[in-house]
Amino acid sequence: MIRLEGDEFARRARACRLLVLDVDGVLTDGRIILSGTEEHKAFHTQDGFGITLARAAGLQVAVLTGRRSEAVARRARELRLDHVLQGRPDKGAALAELRAAAGVAPHETAGMGDDWLDLPLLEDAALAACPADARPEVAARCHLVAARGGGHGAVREFVDALLAARGQLDDLLDRCRCGEGPAASQPAASQPAPSREGGAG
């Protein structure tokens, strides 16, 4: 559900150059599976391809999470994310760092989160979105509330809305139909994705 007039949503979407995503509860369903010393997460392939589409459309994509996880680092490498900030519960300060690294202004930023710690990100983004199962206090402050939950295609839904508003979605669809679409995620390479670690999170 989009809570902005169509023209205003499209105007903001066209200005966006950076998409910032929370991980737990957005790219995953929020569950954390602990096995010995390892932490496991499940990611949805539709969300992953949505990130690939966003990058093909010219957006930089970042993940910003309060936790640290090798699973996140591996998925970031597979998706060739532009920026990865882990261990940063101070999301307002981390967002400022991301913008400086990406060379973008607040009106060029879109973000997606699900819980209270994401509010500094969402309230300072030109377009803010959340999954269907986000906390109600978060949903009340978002311009788009996805029909799908975290880890179940909510990110893809937001990306599709952004690209449709930018007039890029149909072209990307046609490219995929012709077998010329952007490459999907690849097995993680030995080189890590760009990453800056913060304090304990």
What does this structure look like?
This protein has 201 residues and is α/β, with parallel strands linked by helices. The chain has one domain: Rossmann fold, CATH 3.40.50. It has 8 helices and 9 strands. It has a 7-stranded parallel beta sheet with strand order 8-7-6-1-4-5-9, with helices on both faces. Strands 2-3 form a two-stranded antiparallel sheet. Helix 6 links the parallel strand 7 and strand 8. Helix 1 crosses helix 7 and helix 2 packs parallel to helix 7. It is globular and about 45 Å long. The C terminus is likely disordered.
Describe, in short, the structure shown.
With 201 residues, the protein is an alpha/beta fold. It contains 8 helices and 9 strands.
Strand arrangement across the biggest beta sheet = 8-7-6-1-4-5-9
CATH architecture grouping: 3-Layer(aba) Sandwich
Q: Helix share of residues?
A: 25-40%
**Straight-line N-to-C gap:** 32 Å
In the predicted model, the low-confidence regions spanning at least 5 consecutive residues are: 197-201
Using the coordinates shown, work out and report the CATH topology: Rossmann fold
Q: In this structure, how is the largest beta sheet organized?
A: 7 strands, parallel
Number of strands: 9
CATH class: Alpha Beta
Write down the Rg.
16 Å
Number of helices: 8
| Order of SSEs | HEEEHEHEHEHEHEHHE
Q: What name goes with the CATH superfamily? A: HAD superfamily/HAD-like
Average pLDDT, rounded to a whole number, is 91
Taken as a percent bin, the fraction of beta residues is: 15-25%
Structural category? alpha/beta
- Domain count, please report it: 1
Globally, the shape reads: globular
